[in-house]
Write a structure and sequence with these properties.
single chain; about 200 residues; alpha+beta; four-stranded mixed β-sheet; four-stranded antiparallel β-sheet; 3 helices; 8 strands
């Protein structure tokens, strides 16, 4: 009532006398990243998330296929690695790619691997349509400097087998796992140049 205010700082320790809490011990883990079509790995950014929170990132540079990193985390942490790159969107994209998409839509020559579907779906509609062709044409003609819905490159989990290879939109653009020990985790990404139908 007199307007007097005071505060203090204190510490307390919780003792798990019944040993019911999970083991939150720290460990140093190693990740070995392999990028298929590694010419697209140049200047890519690897982002690491631990338990859903952004943790750190580093650049992949050079022609090597393997990049090893070492980080600290808690046992049973969920770790996710994503690769991103968004430069040079016209790289490898030509009118031949538009023609391949057209033939696929008309049923004259279907795509032969899941990554062609992913590369052609530049509007992220999870289907191949004329609007994908339009977006690619606008990029080629210089009407647009980049794709409106996707970066120039996407990197997918190379070890994930899609349920339907002709609709492989369930392949995640990341690799995620639960780290339980000190073992080196090797993860593989398939690089996909958007709009470039190989």
């Amino acid at each position: 009532e007199e307007g007097n205010v005071d505060s203090c700082q204190f510490e307390f320790v919780l003792e798990d006398t019944l040993n019911v809490c999970p083991q939150y011990c720290k460990l140093t883990y190693a990740i070995n990243i392999q990028v298929l079509d590694n010419q697209y790995a140049y200047y890519s950014l690897a982002k690491i998330y631990i338990n859903g929170n952004y943790f750190s990132s580093f650049n992949l540079i050079g022609p090597d296929n393997n990049y090893s990193i070492y980080r600290d985390c808690l046992v049973d942490s969920t770790i996710r690695v994503e690769l991103t790159r968004n430069d040079d969107p016209i790289n490898g994209v030509t009118t031949v790619d538009v023609l391949k998409i057209k033939k696929h839509i008309l049923g004259k020559q279907f795509f032969t691997n899941p990554y062609q579907y992913l590369a052609a779906d530049v509007n992220q509609s999870k289907s191949i349509s004329g609007s994908d062709m339009t977006e690619i044409r606008q990029l080629i003609l210089g009407v647009k400097p980049e794709f409106s819905k996707v970066p120039a490159f996407l990197f997918y989990n190379a070890d994930y087998k899609p349920k339907d290879p002709s609709a492989p939109y369930d392949i995640p653009p990341y690799v995620e796992w639960v780290q339980k020990d000190y073992q080196v985790k090797t993860i593989r990404f398939q690089a996909v140049k958007m709009g470039d139908i190989k």
